[in-house]
Design goal:
The complex is a heterodimer. Chain A is mainly α. Chain A has helices at about 5-35, 40-65, 70-100, 105-130, 155-175, 180-190, 200-225, 235-250, 255-275, 280-295, and strands at about 135, 145, 150-155, 230. In chain A, the strands form two sheets. Chain A has a two-stranded antiparallel ribbon with strand order 1-4. Chain A has a two-stranded antiparallel ribbon with strand order 2-3. Chain A starts with a helix and ends in a 16-residue tail after the last helix. Chain B has a domain at about 5-85 and about 155-235: 3-Layer(aba) Sandwich (Rossmann fold). Chain B has ten helices and ten strands. In chain B, helix 3 (about 95-105) runs parallel beside helix 6 and helix 6 runs parallel beside helix 7. The chains are: A mainly alpha, B alpha/beta.
Amino acid sequence: MNLTFFFQNVVNALQWGSFYALIALGYSMVYSILMLFNFAHGDIFMVGTYIGFVLTTGLVALSAAGIVVLPNWLILVLTIVLAMLFTSCLGMLVERIGYRPLRGAPRASAAITGLMIGIILQTTVLSIMGAQRVLYPSLIPTTAYTVGGVSVTNIKIMIVFVSIALMIALHQFVQHSKWGMAMRAMAYDYAVVPLMGISINAIAALTFAIGSALAAVAGIMYGMAYPILDPSMGILFGWKSFVAAILGGRGSIMGACIAGFLIGFIEIFVATIFPSTLRDLIAYSIILFILVFRPHGLFGEPYSARLRL
Amino acid sequence: MLLTVKNLRVSYGKIKALQGLDFTIEEGEIVTIIGANGAGKSTTLRSISRLEEVEPGTVMTFMGKDMLTYPPEKVVSELGISHVPEGRRLFGNLTVLENLRLAAFARKDKGMVGRDLERVFAIFSRLNERKDQKAGTLSGGEQQMLAVGRAFISGRQLMLLDEPSMGLAPLLMKRVFESLEEINKEGTTILLVEQNARMALKFARRAYLLEAGRLRLQGFCSELMDHPEIKKAYLGG
């Protein structure tokens, strides 16, 4: 493998890993404060992508009809902001309807609920949008730059840049804001949080909202890079990002980001060496192998009994 | 009356933890509930904080308001009832200062929080020295101070304390109780739950004796200290 080829794949892997990392964050954040895995998260990502698709298509049509003429960059910004907003509402709704009534129930119940919500979301999108694949409208013409033989598109740069910026913003929020502090406290000892005058439900809703908003951004950027969408796209993406959350260490935000990128790298590099039909077989065997030796993930703490008041 | 509790009943499945308690607390008082392990002392405090679902028929009013309509976080933020839980339960991953700031999360009088933080650091100077240290690295005594400090910030009408003496050396215990006295003098009513009956009876004005989910005795501490039953069972003769 020559150096140019190697760096070309690094660039591809950074983009591919960005999607996993952003989605894995949603799994990890929810797990860290509520100790449940939101198995509907992959489908929330899918719905976020479709919301982005509808918004973009709608705004482009409005512009074309001359009703409200907006430049393409503004359409993109509006799409991202509104899709984050709507998708976070969906996340909060899922928490409110699906998970909150099950707070005290065995954890298997919440897992099953998550799977069912996932199916409901898929079939809802299917019934509204139809089964045919839809084409994500292209807002920004793709420009390719070649740096030392490595080809980089403006879309790729944007995806990696936006993902890393969001991760840093999330980190700052969690470490330095009052709400972030409450989230960290809740991750440590859930049951004492109300004694500080803080509503557990409010923090849970916030966490679902943030995780879903990040998934929406991942979805829109995915649509820009791979513009073909179908309602089952969230399944495999969701599971792989869930693997990233586990590989990063359950509940670890930094772990989820790093593991998301790591899985992106493993997948891309496996595909360069082996036939692409074997990609997931080999890539996930490698990850399984890592988890055998580090069952609590790269940055997770060994299984600890959490205090419950 | 600051707090009035009537017919307080709590069950865990078939186990009846509290079987109809009646008690009151006046404003500015220090009241203690003593009793053996498992008598229901913690459950009583947890019921007041609304962490425990009480059975129908229970009446709890605080400054004339029906407490049963309040969720746990509003008991703290709107009624001003703070709770130092059993085992302190600090957020070990947060610094001392963050633990205290978190306790001010829902306070509306943001301007007063800074002054209260200073007050906490004045009462417990050890915490000031360690304010940027993770709470999990504090010694037992310091942790108890932080737990009390956190309650001081979160609600000042009534402070519920669950076994603050647990695991503390006598000298530290004395220090913690002295600061509680100071906090009480500044206007915070205190309800203390203790297994260490001697300490509690010396500290409080009135006491209730809880046995197997029922109140057996009540009265002024000065009188209860000489009560033959309490002397025999709780003060070691």
